[in-house]
């Protein structure tokens, strides 16, 4: 008859539940952090420490958080927490981008719905609506970021619309004005006819677009080659709307050309038998096919260089387009498609513009900001560029200039806000020169001096800076920082007067930049030194990328709890052409170096198949709120660090389930330690030198993990650190150390040195592991810490990582235990096979006979292998021949195991099968358990 000894076993006890209930628990933890003012506590504790400052790239104050926000802010929080726990002052100040088109567009929607004209509204009143809108969403996003567990200065964040920020933006632009780097010029820029403003490269995205394509004859007016007399030059373009702006034709100097004479055509062809035209020699067959020419001959061939001095008439010559169209050499002309001749509209293309400038060509103004042709444009005045293609075709047909037309689906620039297609449009804008003051070279030198993680970011941004044109920093909108510039009416030169700039910035600081729009502003800011009648006040605003690029000036430099330059900038990989880029140029242009020491980029979020980006239209969107209300924010945090965020990240319900499984492993590891440490005190602690080898091996592993954690934090490689910590919890602890030491913890006497050693190591393990996990699963780590260290003001987050003693490292011991663990793996495999075959029930019923090499057996000498393998008995045979049917594990062929049954009876307290069970004073127990019962004074 069995006796119940359960009450005499030291079973785990803890208030740390197996079921996390994060969705309910996390808000309670957040409220406690708020009560203790955790952020301020960290700042007070950190005074005088080395600073680590991650400068926040400002998200846009527009709408609820999406998963990209969560990825970005959680990663920032992990990094700042980790450096704080390394013993630094890692202060995080969040911020918001507030100016710009998305908010302005949203406010305009309201006007359009009410049938109002936004342009008739007082600009100050309109700007107030924009400001109120931004303020509303900042409040919402702030609470959502806090719900993710992000610690920062949420009470005093920065915003680009704060009055001091607007003042500093004006000052930074003023520095470029004063040093000659800022100038006004007319050149083609990417323009949105819907939003009526120029766009920066970072505001442009590319989508498939169907364009009308045309092949157009330009009659040769004057040519250095007799073969071209009475012939046409044929161009091909995907932008028929640019034909009114044509002023030249480009050719390739080194390309071979041919004069084609048409001999036969298809029924619906626009080609005419007998006509002659010139195209690139390599494209003759393709052009003839496109134009429905069924028969042709090559009348002549020549080189592009032979075209020097050639001039054509415009196809609409005699209809208002009575100007020469010269042929000019262009190094951008290719034979990839088209005809080998490129029509040049200097007002509608980058290459076109520079080619025209090189040859002293005037840039015509043909298209207004709303996409309508100006009244002075012949044939098409008042028509819209995106609707004019049929009229252009008809006009070309009327004069016999259209050789062919078709449709082409191709990648085309669109506004990332309105999603509308864009045009290149020549407009007067304000530019920052890349060459004046050696800005390009300073930026390139700054890139070389910056640490880029991953390293591919270096090549990406360097190639952008090497080839980028001058920076267009003006926008024709209302919601933003006004350009603090006055232009002399007669000379057209901007006023460069530091006193005026100072007056403007000082006013912005106190009143906000709305004062630029007040009546009398011109006279007020110009002061007594300049006649207001002589100057025009610029009405453009500063482009928002300059705003965010200047944040280092009004955040890092303005706050004494931060530092300049920042230790780190961190955003998505698209910011090489956005925030990293603009910050680099603003800082290098005013301070000669980047505002950051290092730049880290993460990828974008894809669906769980890794095929598509998350988008509402595809129905694959999961919001952060969906996750924290269901599973908790710690699951999101763990997803961020478990993924390799240097690449695009997969996300979806099945991935969240996998992350949930990983979380449970970590939580159960903490729970086992907390339960097993019930009642532990310093009096029970055992010196390391008195510990068994197994405990000293665990401490050695801690030295390895400590070194890895510090290196991974330096490298921003949290993916590797998570994988190693998870492996440590799963393999080294749960499946090995905990499994082995359960018996000692549960069944040894309270004062037994083995049990004391195990509990001492568990205490050390918990203290290290919970701190290492704190930046990752910040809510769970704090919950676990409180279970071990109760108190309203207790938190793991104001602690630093423990210093691991160097003498815990023992490479020789690690090498020895690697052999022991290999032997144990084979024994465990043999036991599992025997259990599956129902030869044994529990492993404690077994007595394995192990055949192993002498060096492996020697490594096991002096160790309690029954405890290590969780069996009741074990026999080792060195260099003995194993039976042919012995169990062997693939990869460990040198070790073989035969499982036999242990002799004796099952101990009713520890469940081992031993010969001495039943021979002691207590019924049904082994000698070890009898001694424990005696020490407890048990009367069972």
UniProtKB/TrEMBL annotation:
Reaction(s) this enzyme catalyzes, per UniProt: tRNA(Ile) + L-isoleucine + ATP = L-isoleucyl-tRNA(Ile) + AMP + diphosphate
Cross-referenced CDD domains: Anticodon_Ia_Ile_BEm (cd07960), IleRS_core (cd00818)
Species whose genome carries this gene: Rhodospira trueperi
EC category name: ligase
Domains (record comment): IleRS has two distinct active sites: one for aminoacylation and one for editing. The misactivated valine is translocated from the active site to the editing site, which sterically excludes the correctly activated isoleucine. The single editing site contains two valyl binding pockets, one specific for each substrate (Val-AMP or Val-tRNA(Ile)).
Protein's cellular compartments: Cytoplasm
Domain Zinc finger FPG/IleRS-type, first and last residues per copy: 904-932
Assigned GO CC terms: cytosol
Example of a GO MF term: isoleucine-tRNA ligase activity
Subunit description: Monomer.
A Pfam match: Anticodon_1
Protein name: Isoleucine--tRNA ligase
Cofactor: Zn(2+)
Keyword Metal-binding: yes
